[in-house]
Amino acid sequence: MAQDEANFGQICWLEVPVSSVHRAAAFYSSVLGWECKDVDEGKPPAVEGIQSIHMFSKGNLHGAFLVMQKESSIPKIADPEVPEKCPPLPTFRVTSIDETLENVVAAGGKVHIPRTKIGGDMGYFARFIDTEGNVMGLWAFK
């Protein structure tokens, strides 16, 4: 298998729709250590409905906060009354789910599903809602 083929099927880019890039960058920097160096000057969008694009990274993860022109363009999937309602969900590996969820709340987010054992010795997961209304997942072995 060629070197490039080994990476097929892996996440290569993550776009997070937001209404406030400053708030989102502060949240993800605090919770997951993401770096967003162009908070004040984003890139022009290539698609209608997006005001600006602001790149972020953390290790091999690269992506962008998409500042949407309309708040209604950000899908609000999270429903505290129906936690099993779930879109395609990026999940981030962390050392401690409990500590990370504390950081989520301190940074203005909400716990959607608390630390939950997966079973079969496969670790634990949790879900949170960021400051922009997006649902994200966490995973840790312990």
UniProtKB/TrEMBL annotation:
> Which InterPro entries does the entry link to?
Anthracycline_SecMetBiosynth, Glyas_Bleomycin-R_OHBP_Dase, Glyas_Fos-R_dOase_dom, VOC_core
Q: Name one Pfam family in it.
A: Glyoxalase
SUPFAM superfamilies xref list: Glyoxalase/Bleomycin resistance protein/Dihydroxybiphenyl dioxygenase
Q: Where is the signal peptide?
A: none
What residue stretches are annotated with the VOC domain? 10-141
Against Gene3D superfamilies, the record matches this protein to: 2,3-Dihydroxybiphenyl 1,2-Dioxygenase, domain 1
Which PANTHER family does the entry mention? Answer: GLYOXALASE-RELATED
| Annotated protein name in UniProt | VOC domain-containing protein
Q: Which organism is it from?
A: Phialemonium thermophilum
